[in-house]
Amino acid sequence: MIIEPRMRGFICLTAHPVGCEQNVINQINYVKSKGKIDGPKRVLVIGASTGFGLASRITSAFGSDASTIGIFFEKPSSPGKLATPGWYNTAAFEKQAQEAGLYAKSINGDAFSNEVKEKTLALIKEDLGQIDLVVYSLASPVRTDPTTGITHRSVLKPIGAPFKNKTVDFHSGKVTEISIDPCTEEDIQNTIKVMGGEDWEMWIDSLKTANLLAPNALTIAYSYIGPELTEPVYRKGTIGRAKDHLESTAFTIADKLSDIGGNAYVSVNKALVTQASSAIPVIPLYISLLYKVMKAEGIHEGCIEQIQRLYSERLYTGGNVPVDEKGRIRIDDWEMRADVQAKVAALWEEATTENLPSIGDLEGYSNDFYNLFGFKVGGVDYTADTNEVVEIPGLQ
Ligand code: NAD
Ligand code: NA
């Protein structure tokens, strides 16, 4: 079929398998171009099909020849029905991994469930024996607690007072004022349940109990801080409370891993266009200004550049892992540079529908958004008849 983008609100309903494949190949080539990393050999990535998790899987495999198991929640393809991008990404990744002689298997299902955890444990036992690195990179709006059966929904809201600021609809380019009402106490607890550290700790507990973590095993989860501008709706809002919880869970897990010489980290990553971040109000305007400034400075990075740097310059240098005063790894260091933030803040004041295309990188934002779904990727023939059905070779 001929596959074209079909947008609805913040999502794209279609995905292009060849475009997704090209994105994955581009990321693999980037990692290869940076040379080998003396990194982990057996890696479990939870949230492995898109964004930072996919970049982590690619960096593990093609940066340090790791065997990888990927967990994700994606819609498969079938005749006449397109898969979600993460499915096509994973199919492409596994194909490339196989060609390179690298072990790669995947499990498609709800990572929050006991069932997927049990299936993963059995696969590790059978195939890899133990794991050297567990990457926890889920971004989800819902979680069913496997103990209580209750389904929790996260919200993106300020705490205590309404938040009024500018935002942009990146499809139309319209800059408008938005006002978001504050959350309830229940919203905070639900958001912590979904995006906090509880499930990360459950994964590590079950892996450790089954003796599936190797000596000196590491685990890492991803967080975000961002500028003062977005604080009310991000870091000091409901999602920020969940990130606080995730960050404190790293210490709890680190304690639990100390007897095997292991450790747990949170890495604070840069703001990037992903399916998760496009849905957060105000963030797209911030990102479009940030991209403009960082590209002008020559310090712009995507997920793959971020994670390659995380591995090669933070986690696997052979020396101590550098962390901030709160114990967090910072690869948002270039985003948070004072000169970068001052420029973004000044542009923010000025931003209007009329000037955003020139003072911000609206085009870069939009392009990255299309790229997430395999569209507008260089070198892909979008007029070609494309097979929508793509298999993941190592799917369990
Ligand atoms: P993403 O949407 O690209 O990836 C989410 C992944 O989680 C996908 O692989 C998806 O299949 C998987 N997933 C979602 N629900 C699942 C479920 N129930 N079971 C199994 N898999 C499931 O998101 P992302 O932006 O890469 O986010 C990953 C992490 O990075 C999040 O913790 C996010 O807060 C953090 N982060 C993101 C940004 C950003 O700007 N995008 C910045 C810093 C940190
Ligand atoms: Na991810």
**Major β-sheet profile:** 7 strands, parallel
- Write down the overall geometry: globular
Helix content: 40-55%
The percent range for strand residues is 15-25%
| Overall radius of gyration | 20 Å
Strand pairing plus helix content: what structural class? alpha/beta
Q: Tell me, rounded to a whole number, the average pLDDT.
A: 97
Cofactors, ions and other ligands in the entry:
nicotinamide-adenine-dinucleotide, sodium ion
Number of helices: 13
User: Multimeric state of these chains?
Assistant: single chain
Strand order of the largest sheet: 5-4-3-6-11-12-13
Q: How do the helices and strands follow one another from N- to C-terminus? A: EEHEHEHEHEEEEEHHEHEHHHEHHH
What would you note in describing this structure?
The structure is a single chain. This protein is α/β, with parallel strands linked by helices and 396 residues long. The chain is 41% helix and 16% strand. It is built from 13 helices and 13 strands. It has helices spanning 17-33, 51-64, 85-99, 114-128, 185-195, 198-209, 238-257, 275-278, 283-297, 303-315, 338-350, 356-359, 362-372; strands spanning 7-8, 11-12, 42-46, 67-72, 104-108, 131-136, 142-144, 151-153, 163-169, 174-180, 213-223, 263-268, 329-330. Strands 5-4-3-6-11-12-13 form a seven-stranded parallel beta sheet, with helices on both faces. A hairpin with a 2-residue loop joins strand 1 (7-8) and strand 2 (11-12). Helix 2 (51-64) packs parallel to helix 3. The longest helix is centred in the middle third of the chain and has 20 residues, at 238-257. The radius of gyration is 20 Å and the shape is globular. The model has no long low-confidence stretch (mean pLDDT 97).
